[in-house]
Every structure is written in structure tokens, then in C-alpha cells.
């Protein structure tokens, strides 16, 4: 579904932003080829704890799912059990990827009705599930277009993830890696589609623009992109939207679009309060990160200013640093986690800065281009 927006629509939205109050991300549902193996990977590599399961044994006949948690992060990994299944069609077209960005709200029915009244496509009308302790309400709308949706989740003293799931107590022993929350998710969209996607989130969900980056901000010799950063009113949910720009070669955004066969979530940024400890743990678990040139760390303190961390340790772990007027941040990016060069994870620690590492864009993109060249996808 595609929606059109005009200035009057957006002005109306800014007057009505209080109609949909999104508290935080409740869970992220991934469609994956093998949910059990993916659960094992995210548990062993990233330290998530498998806590719930749905499948044939719980009365679900068309899919199987595992719920994993760490800190305030909840992942749902879902695979199809039948061929005649929308999940199977998604995987055939896109490969593994995030399908549902589910958001916790106080009133799922009101959020759903408001979103549909503003033009959102309904996928699941509000359903209420109750038990002795409380209740759960879920409703779902489609995103602007493509195979991405948003569920509104309302929980009141509900002690289960969802009624078709059973608790898992003996799947695997895991050690947390210090990941505490979702910082942001990044969407990649086609040329000319950034503003329509941004208009959807502004009009339907009440997001507002936080930052905008042009091709002058994000470019190298070979590739460029433009980006808008959107966030909801409390600032708990942040969604940068990237669009490729013309360059001598193929940008990482266009490579994603080619292999994902359309727009979608390119990467998930997970927050930590001790990135050095987290990255050490992740590397020891076998997580592969993008390489950073040693030259990046030459005169780093002159560029960034004084920081708490040891430069040699940052160089060893290849962690990037950026500073803005509010403070600084540290970040690092994994290599693609799927067979297609699409989805990856960012690890981020914020020490005052609420930005997205603008000063690291050039170094990061040059590193990504080396990976693209090795895959034969740069020129």
C-alpha cells in the first residue's frame, strides 16, 4: 500500500501527535529460515536468553517461534511450517529479516483506530487475551509499503508473552553480553521514497524529524546516500530512513535493496553501558565486526577531545567514537548476519550524545565498500 501526503496532512499530524502514544518497542519479530537454529545463534553469539516457544506442541500448525530476551530487548524468531504460507513467501523474496516492529502502548484499540482513520492499512484488528493475572491486546497495521508491519501491544499484568507460547526453561544456558535496550532501527528505501516513508510515520504514528543528512554528509568516492532520522514524542523509538544517492558505484543502500528485493530494516542498533566489555564478549563468542583502518585512531583525541576510554583498547577492538555538542558516543557494526548482504547489528554506547555518529560516516562507509568490493557489488 502507498499513501500520499500533502502539507495540510502533516500540519494536521503535528496538531494531533498526542493521539497515538508509543511507549517503547515491545518486541521485534524476525522471519527466519530456521527459528531453532537462529535462536541458538542469538543465544550463543549475542547472549540472549530463550524464554518462550510456540509451534506444533502448543497448537500452532503453520509456524514455529522462539522468544529471546536480554535487558529490555525482546526478539521473536519465526519460521514457516508449511509451503503455502506468507512467511515462506517473505523468506523466498527477502531472506531473513525483521517483519514486525511491535510497540508497547497504553490503549491498543485506540491506537489502531486512530492509525486506520489516518489511512493505515489494517492487518489485524484488536484481539484481547486474558488469564488469571491480566490481559494482552494486540492489533497490527501495515507500514508504508513492503513486507513490514507494526503491532500495537497493550499489556496489563499479563505474565506470558502471548497465549500460544509456553515458557522455555531448558533450551540453552546463556551469558548476557551487556545489551540493555534497542537504540534505533534503520530502514532502507528506494530512490525517491524517503519522504513518502517519513510522511507515513509522521502522519500515522506521530513521529517527528530529529535530524537530516544529505549526500554531502554521507558520501565517499564511490557512493552516497541521504537520510532522515524520525522519533516518536518521548524519543523512545528512533527510525532513521536511508535512501541511496547517485555515485560512481553502488551504495550499501542499493546493495541492500537489490538483495532484499525492496525496502526493509537494514540494521538494528542495540545499546550497552560498557561497549568495551560487550564487544570483548561478542568477539569471544565469534561475532564478526567490520574492520576499521588503523589510521582512524591517529590523532583521535585531537578530533574527538578527551574521553574516558583507552585509545589503544578502542584500536584493538576497532570501536568508533564520535562527539557532538551534547557529548560523545561509541559504536561498532557487525558484518552481515545473513547469507544475503542485508541485515546487521550495531552496538552503541551513548555518553551524552544523542546523534548517530556523523563523524564516523566516511570511515564506516569506506569499510563497508571494501566488503562490497570483496563481494563484487561495489562497481
Map the helices and strands.
Elements lengths: L6 H9 L6 E10 L3 H12 L2 E6 L8 E8 L2 E8 L5 H9 L2 E9 L2 H10 L4 E9 L4 E8 L6 E8 L9 E2 L11 E10 L5 H12 L2 E6 L10 E8 L6 E8 L6 H9 L3 E9 L2 H10 L15 H5 L6 H7 L2 E5 L2 E7 L10 E8 L9 H15 L4
Parallel strand pairs: 1-4, 5-8, 10-13, 14-17
Antiparallel strand pairs: 1-5, 2-3, 2-9, 3-4, 6-7, 7-8, 10-14, 11-12, 12-13, 15-16, 16-17
Kindly report the CATH topology of the largest domain: 2,3-Dihydroxybiphenyl 1,2-Dioxygenase, domain 1
CATH class of the largest domain: Alpha Beta
Count of DSSP strands: 17
Percentage of residues in strands: 25-35%
Number of helices: 10
Average pLDDT, all residues: 90
Overall domain count = 2
Biggest sheet: strands side by side, in what order?
6-7-8-5-1-4-3-2-9
Specify the biggest β-sheet.
9 strands, mixed
Distance between the termini: 32 Å
Oligomer: single chain
Morphology call = globular
Write the H/E string, N to C: HEHEEEHEHEEEEEHEEEHEHHHEEEH
Named at the architecture level, the CATH assignment of the largest domain is: Roll
C-alpha Rg (nearest Å): 21 Å
Condensed summary:
With 379 residues, this protein is an alpha+beta fold.
Salient structural properties:
alpha+beta, 2,3-Dihydroxybiphenyl 1,2-Dioxygenase, domain 1, eight-stranded mixed β-sheet
Plain-language structure description:
With about 375 residues, this protein is of the alpha+beta class. The protein has two domains: about 15-165, Roll (2,3-Dihydroxybiphenyl 1,2-Dioxygenase, domain 1); about 180-375, 2,3-Dihydroxybiphenyl 1,2-Dioxygenase, domain 1, CATH 3.10.180.10. The protein contains ten helices and 17 strands. Strands 6-7-8-5-1-4-3-2-9 form a nine-stranded mixed sheet. The chain has an eight-stranded mixed sheet with strand order 11-12-13-10-14-17-16-15, with helices on both faces. Strand 7 and strand 8 (about 150-155) form a beta hairpin. Helix 1 packs parallel to helix 5. The radius of gyration is 21 Å and the shape is globular.
